[in-house]
Write a structure and sequence with these properties.
The chain starts with a strand and ends in an 8-residue tail after the last strand. Strand 1 (about 5-10) and strand 2 (about 15) form a beta hairpin. The chain is built from five helices and eight strands. The strands form two sheets. It has a six-stranded antiparallel sheet, with no helix packed on it. The chain has a two-stranded antiparallel sheet with strand order 3-5. It has two domains: about 5-80 and about 160-205, Cyclophilin-like (Cyclophilin); about 85-145. It has helices at about 85-110, 110-120, 125-145, 150-160, 180-185; strands at about 5-10, 15, 40, 55, 70, 75-80, 170-175, 200-205. Helix 1 (about 85-110) crosses helix 3.
């Protein structure tokens, strides 16, 4: 019987599977773009973070998937790393900067036609004024919605570890409750270009439990 593979492994980050194209895939075939032909609406909830062992849905990038809809089949299991208190503070600053940039880009996208017209007309003054206005709007939005790690996130990342920069970006829908040591062994394997393991790692069965 042919099984689906763990088709992507990045050490100290995560392992990924669920690509139906991996079933019986020959050695060297690039994987990671397959799916069932549908996506699932994002369900990004603040109480679920990317701590080690978190089970989350893969998805396409924001450029082609601004709603952050999840893949209908692909998933990843977080490994990540452990952080000290100082590193967590720095991570929080990075998340704030990331959120601010995303907010600014979203606002700018709403004015794309206006921006393109100004560029064609070489209206530098108009572009400068619009930029300042969007920066002011961004700062106001961020002030109303500050990005801060919860105590639960801080505790998780300073004890078990994880990948905090993925929080708020992907849907976390489960957690490995048994066999996390196996995930640790998988994330150590040698990989080829494209992050596919040199030796196939088959997913024979998956058991899900409601908690």
């Amino acid at each position: 019987m042919e099984h689906i593979f763990v088709h992507r492994v990045i050490k100290n980050f995560m392992i990924q599977g669920g690509d139906p194209n991996s079933k019986g895939a020959p050695a060297g075939q690039q994987l990671g773009t397959g799916g069932p032909g549908y996506t699932i609406p994002a369900e990004i909830l603040p109480q679920f973070c990317h701590k080690r062992g978190a089970l989350a849905a893969a998805r396409q990038s924001d450029e082609v998937n601004p709603e952050r809809a999840s893949s209908g089949s692909q998933f990843y299991i977080v490994w990540g790393q452990q952080y000290n208190a100082g590193q967590v503070k720095q991570l929080e600053k990075q998340l704030q900067m990331q959120a601010e940039q995303q907010t600014f880009n979203s606002l700018a996208a709403q004015h794309r036609s206006e921006i393109m017209t100004m560029r064609r007309n070489r209206d530098q003054e108009g572009l400068y004024e619009l930029q300042n206005d969007l920066i002011a709007q961004t700062k106001a939005i961020m002030k109303e919605n500050p990005v801060k790690l919860t105590q639960e996130q801080i505790d998780a990342y300073t004890t078990v570890g994880g990948t905090p920069h993925l929080d708020g970006q992907y849907t976390v829908f489960g957690e490995v409750t048994e066999g996390l040591d196996i995930v640790g062994k998988i994330q150590e394997v040698s990989t080829m270009p494209g992050d596919r393991p040199k030796e196939d790692i088959c997913i024979i069965s998956i058991e899900c439990k409601d908690l």
